[in-house]
Amino acid sequence: MRESIDEAQPWLDDPEYMAIVGKFLEKPELKKLDTIEHHHVSTRLQHSLRVSYQSYKISKKLGWKSYETARAGLFHDLFYYDWRKTKFAKSHAYVHPRIAYRNAQKLTDISPLEKDIIIKHMWGATLNPPRYKESFLVSFVDDAVAIKEWRASRRLKRRVHKHMRMNMQHENN
Ligand SMILES: [Fe+2]
Ligand SMILES: [Fe+2]
Prior knowledge:
By secondary structure, the protein is mainly alpha-helical. It has a single domain (10-172), classed as Hypothetical protein af1432 (Orthogonal Bundle). Helix content is 62%, strand content 2%. The chain is built from seven helices and two strands. A two-stranded antiparallel ribbon has the order 1-2. The chain is globular. It starts with 14 loop residues before the first helix and ends with a helix. One fe (ii) ion is lined by residues 76-77, 96, 121-122.
């Protein structure tokens, strides 16, 4: 079955979720994320909302801390640099969660659980394991969402190449 990136924004129809994150979406710090490309087919804001909302729904179903899961999921990639161009002494996987945490702190008080979710979301690529089940959850959901986005971007590229080939053939005939 063909996988497609979910263009829908189901969170907009979920007042309980929007009551948690809605006020942040009005802030320029979050709006700016919507101008940054993420995994080619997405903006960093859309990616963050997908991770936040899917994690929140699972967390809620399991009776876990869904409020913190929603917030930290939204903030997990709250950074603005282009990791392909900007290089730090430490890896991107290590650096960007720490920048996201610092940026999130400027917007709201961040609880220890939320801090762990944000800082450890790259676990697997970084060594320090999460302390809470909600942190594992967001890390797994982030991977799953990223894989879907990468697949969608590969499909998009293939379609563009096919289209270009067809155009060239048409021009040569
Ligand atoms: Fe990330
Ligand atoms: Fe992410």
